[in-house]
Amino acid sequence: MRATAVRRTALAAAVASLTLLATACSGSDSDAKGDGGTSGGKDATSSKPAAVKALTSAELEKVSLEQGDVAGHKVSKTGPEDIAQPEDVTVDKKECEPIGFAFYGVKRGTPVGNAGRKVVQEPKKDESADPEDALAGLLDVTSSLVTLASYEDDGAAKSLAELRESAAKCASGGFTLTMKGSKQKVTKVTEEKVTGGEEALAWRVQMGEGDAAAPFKLVSLRQGGTVATFFSFNLGKTGADSDFDRPTAVIDAQVKKLG
Fold first, then answer.
1. Amino acid 101: pLDDT
2. Could you tell me which residues come within 8 angstroms of residue 20 by beta carbon, excluding any fewer than 6 positions away?
3. I need a labelling partner for 14 at 20 to 30 A (CA). Which of 23, 42, 143, 249 fits?
4. Which helix (DSSP H) or strand (DSSP E) does residue 12 occupy?
């Protein structure tokens, strides 16, 4: 890979990802996320879980990922600067609001508790690689914002169902998000198969077009009354045809802790 190509890749991905890194919500007290795609557990529209007691933010912190839970990844807590408030984000199509809000962690519904983490894959080091390939390797890492939101009764199931409906309506045609004046154009929403928890949804989300496009991975799953959401990107992957693997190790580790 030529140095110019690597720099172009890094720049395009950074532009697409900067808002996510700076503002995507994963707060420990005011965050709620859910994302959608295909059902991997019970069907989101037919599952009618019995009444459940929601976990508080303190209880969610105890079942959130910690450093050492995912091999080869750095885990850290999210802070207030990562939390997007409802007034910070607007979506140009009302039906796309639920999924658009999910990208930035805007609180949806009435969760009792919230918690969040940033999980970053550690780059693979190859001492024998030339400088250009070494730089490309440093960029080829997946970062994820992981949020937990817990709801009373069937609130968690309703959250996933809402996201599934929103994704279906917004899969084609795209929509525009505005985050504190910065616009992001979502051009494609493609559902993917995923398993995890009692029910799970997943999408590949493309922001931008052509060489400026960047793929994101969005997963939301339910375990009891808790919804876990994973919004991921890879700085080394840009372009309309690019893609990267879903961070299954991160997802599996979080599902295990939710029990």
1. 87
2. 103, 104, 145, 216, 231, 233
3. 249
4. helix 3-23
pLDDT, position 43? 47
Q: Would you state the pLDDT for residue 172?
A: 85
Q: What's the predicted TM-score (pTM) here?
A: 0.79
Q: Is 54 helix (H, G, I), strand (E, B) or coil?
A: coil
Beta bridge partners of residue 144, listed in sequence order? 119, 232
Sequence-ordered list of residues with C-beta below 8 angstroms from that of 180, at least 6 positions apart, any chain: 23, 88
